[in-house]
Amino acid sequence: MCGRYASTTPPEAMRALFGYLEQPNFPARYNIAPTQPVAIVRLVEGKRQFALVRWGLIPAWVKDPRAFSLLINARGESVNEKPAFRNAMKYRRCLFPADGFYEWKREGESKRPYFVRLKSGAPMAFAGLWESWMGPNGEELETAAIVTTQASRSIAHIHDRMPVIVPLEAFDFWLDPKVDAHSAAAVLQPAPDAMIEAYEVGSAVNRTANDSAVLIEPLREPEPVVVAPARKKEKIKPDDGQASLF
């Protein structure tokens, strides 16, 4: 899964990489979390466009977003079949600019955060889907989800899922709505093992209020293990993992 990521490349460098016409001036963000405004790149009238949307996709057919599960991720293996993502996969594919993402490794009752990035240190693009929801009073909300796939072998010991990293040469192919959804799904593959690296970081990333470069620094000394108190067992509805944060 992908429940937290970072986007730290300066605006001009990001604009040059993704080739959109807008000139947004946005700060580096080291702890981007669900429901927050996030940057995406999409194709509008044949041109790449930068846009800010909410992370957590709401399909157009939803009547009340407050009663709908938060869809921050879409599993690549079923994205063409799931009603929540099927139309977006056909017509509204996008890219999430990023510089890395966090995954949590479960060890007993605790979880340890890791940061995953390209070995080159370059920015990357996650495969994404976006939607536009219109409310009964004319209110409009644009939202998006990150498409995930099976984790690369090099990071599978941390978590079994990861965001789809779209290579630069596949940007146009993924974004173009003229490419049918089933053909576009060929992009939804794990990143090559030689391309990525992961290292443990401090637990400060667990709090969404924390947002600084310290979060992506490698952990130098082991932190004390904090075990969450046992909770009373509750009945839980079956979940396919689409809305999980970690």
- Helical proportion? under 10%
Morphology: globular
Looking at CATH, which topology would you report? hypothetical protein yedk fold
CATH class category label: Alpha Beta
Biggest pleated sheet: 5 strands, antiparallel
CATH architecture: Alpha-Beta Complex
Report how far apart the termini are.
6 Å
Give the strand order, joined by hyphens, for the main sheet.
Answer: 2-1-7-8-12
- Model regions low in confidence, pLDDT < 50 over at least 5 residues: 228-246
Class by SSE composition:
mainly beta
Question: Which percent band covers the strand fraction?
Answer: 25-35%
CATH superfamily: SOS response associated peptidase-like
| Overall mean pLDDT | 91
DSSP helical segment count: 4
Characteristic terms for this protein:
246 residues; 12 strands; mainly beta; five-stranded mixed barrel; 9% helix; hypothetical protein yedk fold
Description:
By secondary structure, the chain is mainly beta. The chain has a single domain (5-216), classed as hypothetical protein yedk fold. The protein has helices at residues 11-18, 86-91, 171-175, 181-184, and strands spanning 5-7, 29-32, 37-44, 47-55, 73-75, 93-98, 100-107, 110-118, 124-134, 140-150, 161-163, 196-200. The strands form 2 sheets. It has a 5-stranded antiparallel β-sheet with strand order 2-1-7-8-12, with no helix packed on it. The protein is globular.
Q: Secondary-structure blueprint of this entry?
A:
Elements: E1 5-7, H1 11-18, E2 29-32, E3 37-44, E4 47-55, E5 73-75, H2 86-91, E6 93-98, E7 100-107, E8 110-118, E9 124-134, E10 140-150, E11 161-163, H3 171-175, H4 181-184, E12 196-200
Parallel strand pairs: 4-10, 5-10
Antiparallel strand pairs: 1-2, 1-7, 3-4, 3-6, 6-9, 7-8, 8-12, 9-10, 10-11
